[in-house]
Design a protein that fits this description.
Layout (H helix, E strand, L loop, with lengths): L2 H21 L29 H12 L21 H13 L10 H18 L6 E5 L2 H16 L3 H5 L7 E6 L5 H9 L6 E4 L9 H13 L3 E8 L11 H11 L2 E5 L24 E4 L1 H4 L7 E5 L2 H8 L30 H36 L3 E3 L7 E6 L6 H17 L6 E5 L2 E7 L7 H17 L1
Parallel strand pairs: 2-3, 2-4, 4-5, 5-6
Antiparallel strand pairs: 1-7, 6-7, 8-9, 9-11, 10-11
Helix pairs in contact: 3-12, 4-12, 5-7, 5-11, 12-14, 13-14
Length: 470
């Protein structure tokens, strides 16, 4: 493709992008294709001769788009937000054009220094203590892995990195039963082992039971285990429950345990003064993660990971082959030492774009709007005799089920599962589910960038009508 051809097609593509954003509500929210349907339309072998961009775009529309679930639709209420916004998309276009490799300061000084400044902006926006430093990781899963690996090394005086863990003391990691699956994945990857992840029961509000945590730690210490890390969650995936941070932090401080806080989605709400209560106990935190790519309108991937003592993090991950030695080492942040990958994208640019073009007040207005919509939805659900709210509405997630009269309790799970599939198969809305105390639960997330109360009211009417017609 020549530069002139690129210029022509790039202009066409921007029109396509803008058109997609204008018309995203018209697509079925959840893809309606069957397994294998896309795969079977693709040729068995790559083309021997070059093909045109026009043909590529034709196949995009004919083959690929029917297999896309539209996360940017305001009728997408499933899983969690995976938001983007025009400022983020424009910055991502620049990032792709520059294609900078941002592994160390020398390879892209602006990328390293902008990242450092953006982490200060975010730290101060959510009001973490000033002694925290941050780095952009790809996902919260990677951030949690970094936290557990750092805790592992700190707990063993950095011996496992050097000697391996075969003859090491058995470490224990603790989280609530409602914690994200990334905790389990991280203990497996770290070598600590899934059997050494202790899942603490939760209270009626689905937050970690502090007494059970204390008992588990004391029992493990008596048995010869070494408690290494506790993961507290601000906004659990299923119900957005907020673990009692200060009480957990005090237990960690008493026992010399690393405290990692997973606030992947809910952390964005910390930019609101009225949600700073979630961070009560921040003085006990060792590491903290939240994802601007979930609820801060910055497209994937962009996970903000903060640590109180970056020296522990760097000592866990740093390695210095000859070809990476530079004259600036020690004077700047070489972020490839702050996590697993060597190669790094210029992700700070889209954060800079989003924060500047929305402004702090604009971001706060959007987040407050999503929270108000969730509360209004909860009121609508509670008014209906044949629907039931199943968890406290903390932020932007409403958990509920259809509970009609005359249907036995043991049949309600299947009934609500059928309702969920019927709604999603309609293409008009997309909801996901969780299971709470054995109850199949519908989850509705009001966090998509452009969602309005009108979208939610329309969705709620569809839910009621579909449920009652079953």
């Amino acid at each position: 493709m020549t530069n002139e051809e690129f210029r022509k097609h790039a202009h066409e593509l921007v029109e396509w992008m803008a058109g997609y954003m204008d018309n995203v509500e018209k697509y079925p929210v959840k893809s309606q294709v069957k397994p294998g349907e896309i795969f079977n339309q693709l040729p068995d072998n790559p083309p021997a001769k070059p093909e045109s961009f026009d043909l590529f775009m034709e196949d995009l529309g004919k083959i690929i788009m029917p297999g896309i679930s539209h996360w940017q639709s305001p009728n997408f209420f499933a899983y969690f937000p995976a938001n983007t916004s025009p400022p983020s998309i424009l910055a991502e276009m620049i990032i792709s054009t520059l294609s900078a490799q941002c592994m160390i300061w020398e390879t892209s000084p602006a990328a390293a220094e902008l990242e450092e400044k953006m982490m200060i902006w975010l730290r101060d926006l959510i009001k973490l203590p000033k002694n925290f430093e941050g780095v952009i990781q790809d996902t919260a899963s990677t951030s949690t892995l970094a936290a557990i690996l750092t805790a592992r090394e700190k707990s063993t005086d950095f011996r496992i990195n050097d000697e391996g863990g075969v003859n090491s003391v058995t470490l224990r990691v603790y989280c609530s039963e409602q914690a994200h699956s990334s905790a389990e994945k991280a203990v497996k990857i770290s070598g600590i082992g899934k059997k050494n992840l202790v899942k603490i029961p939760v209270r009626k509000d689905f937050t970690m039971d502090i007494q059970k945590l204390r008992e588990a730690i004391e029992s493990d210490k008596k048995a010869g285990f070494r408690p290494s890390c506790v993961i507290a969650t601000l906004g659990t995936t299923g119900t957005t429950a907020v673990d009692p941070l200060k009480a957990i932090g005090k237990i960690c401080a008493e026992n010399g345990i690393w405290l990692h806080v997973d606030a992947a989605m809910a952390g964005t709400a910390l930019i609101l003064p009225e949600y700073q209560w979630m961070l009560d106990g921040r003085e006990y935190i060792d590491s903290f993660v939240f994802n601007p790519h979930k609820w801060m309108f910055t497209n994937f991937d962009c996970s903000a990971y903060f640590v109180k003592h970056p020296g522990y993090l760097i000592k866990t991950f740093e390695i210095l082959p000859e070809y990476l030695k530079t004259r600036t080492r020690g004077k700047v942040n070489d972020y490839r030492d702050w996590g697993v990958p060597l190669g790094r994208r210029f992700r700070a640019l889209k954060l800079w774009s989003v924060i500047r073009m929305y402004g702090v007040e604009g971001l706060q207005d959007k987040i407050r709007s999503h929270i108000r919509i969730a509360r209004r939805l909860a009121e609508m659900v509670a008014k209906e005799q044949d629907f039931q709210i199943l968890a406290p509405v903390t932020i932007n997630v409403v958990c509920f089920r259809y509970k009609p009269g005359g249907v036995k309790e043991e049949e309600l799970n299947k009934f609500n599962e059928t309702l969920n599939h019927k709604l999603n198969d309609s293409g008009k809305v997309y909801l996901s589910h969780t299971v709470i105390n054995g109850i199949y639960t519908l989850r509705m997330v009001t966090g998509q960038t452009n969602v309005t109360l009108e979208h939610v009211e329309k969705a709620w009417d569809l839910i009621k009508n579909t449920a009652r017609a079953l």
